[in-house]
Amino acid sequence: MKTKLSLLALTIVLITGNSAIAAGGGGVVADPGAMQGKHFDTKGKAPSTFTVELQNGLRKTLPFEDKRDFEESKRGFIAAPSYKTIMADAGNVAWDMGSYDFLLQGKDFDSVHPSLQRQAILNMGYGLYEVVPGKIYQVRGFDLSNISFVKTNTGWIVFDPLTSKETARAALELVNEKLGKRPVVAVVYSHSHADHFGGVRGVVDEADVKSGKVKIIAPAGFMDHAVAENVYAGNAMTRRLYFQYGVLLPRSPFGHVDQSIGKNTAAGNLGLIEPTILINEPFEKMTVDGVEMEFQNTPGTEAPAEMNTYFPQLKAFWAAENITGTIHNIYTLRGALVRDALAWSKNINNALYRYGNEAQVMFASHSWPRWGNDRVQEVMRTQRDSYAHLNNEVLHLANNGVTINEVHNVYKQPDSLKSQWAAHSYHGSEEHNSRAVINRYLGYWDANPATLIPLSPKDSAPLYVEMMGGSGKIMAKGRQLYQHGKYREAMEIVNKLVYAEPNNTAAKDLLADIFEQIGYQKESPSVRNSFLGAAYELRHGMPSGASPKTNGPDMIKAMTTELWLNALAISMDSKKAAGMRFTINLSTPDNGEKFVVEMSNSALSNIKGYQDKNPHLTITLNRSDLEKVMGGQATFEKLLAEGKAKFEGDRKAFEQLRSTMTTFTPDFELMPGTKAKKAPPAKPSKDPFEAPPIANSDGA
To answer: Which of 168, 429, 464, 507 has its CA at 20 to 30 Å from residue 323's CA atom?
Structure first.
């Protein structure tokens, strides 16, 4: 499989009419050899004897006798559709559940951690399920997340309408076909990640929302966080996502097997319709078309804006993405602000004491429901205690001198949690979550001055290589360690060689072999994918092709003017701004916003609600027209020519600002020596004021 072709794995966001193809890991790279257990890569290796021994040991010690998750994942099944592929409106495959059918052969794969293989099989549930008889239903296996349907007096309330319009539309059609056609009267967004709102246009018409016919309910802060969380470092996040989501990996026992909270992300049209009702209080009751609900705001848990929902009439608790079939990310590998494990634990505890005593079923926007009050309380406590133990034990270790560079080798869950499947870290991992807790409270420094201002790896690596006697000795020792199953030790020295000699193909191939075995052994698919993805790029180079675009009209509309101005300041090359000094007043009359934009000391700042008394330039245009610039559909010059924008003062300030702008493209190396020497030049944005790409937030 060639690197150029493997770019098809990307769910690249392309502007297509009034929509945008969703970003994420959902591009379909099916492997025809997966069913036969053939490795997709000619350079790929089978699991070593050490990896096989490890997997066999895990099969004997993991709690496989507890089969309740399998029973619950199948309970309430009504029907599966006749198809396993859903096409996007743009003509590409948006979803292909059949590409994972190799998991259903009933065989053990030594190239997959046994616990992860179990989770991957559980996530193969596909079709329509009943959660509460006659009242609550879910469609699972149509996207990374679940879409839930609550029957009202006259229609449906839809909870979390997936990532893409096409998969959400197909889910609604399946529900109406099997249960009788009913209108959607409300949509609830549980939180601000794209796989929980992106498919809204597949279940409702925006005109019905604007007329008040359909309510859209979301937690306070939803609109800000739906975009803001992924803008400032969006380009870097997009590139790093290649590893976390295994974007280049075919669906294979040797490649992508699962994404822990679902199979993968759909590659269809992502949209966003602004909520009409925001939940502001910690607990807020509401009745919609005969259905009573109490929303529990849980900000700062799995998302900056998130909420659970309780249905007192049905004794059903909807846990959003706060309680699923995995311990989640405290730090997500694509990049995001570190989350608060203690706050997460306390919010679960609040739900346990407020609803747990009477809830008879708990369902969520990922994974499968749990039934019976004892079972609901058990899983709530297990996850509450997992986050609490992580937070408290890591800080206990830190207060005893364990550093961020040691804690991942020291922190362990207690046996009482290890024996419970709901405490396993598929989306997260104990290693990266434990480091995240220290980073949240103490930062990245381990307090050794030698690590405070270290050399860059490319500068330090040659010193190590020289002192170790050169590449020949390192390769010999690396191969010896590899052959003895000491993969992390081998990684330590061969990684230095690759940084020192990025064009050393033999070294890169050996490091790829090492990464591959480590990946096979990991329970977390994010960690597995990262090692296997890095191995793929070491062997075949980075993907090449057009850079992704992620900004559809809905996301641009949701981006505040202040957020766009802040992003421009990040896009600015400060070296080009040396000596520049100006102020620009920006006014958007249609929404009454005013800003002062100031260039000073090679930094671009802005402030809302002010106008400078003596600006160098004043720019006036409607926010609706500014959105065309932000979305790349127009330029300031075009709007000036059409009379839709007005410049008053010295245009030099505008030209100076334009001259400092750069366009980010996710075409930088994550591993040394993987970028083509003569890579095609990236095509710049057609206008430097176009908003930067928004990184994908599917599955956090």
So the answer is: 168
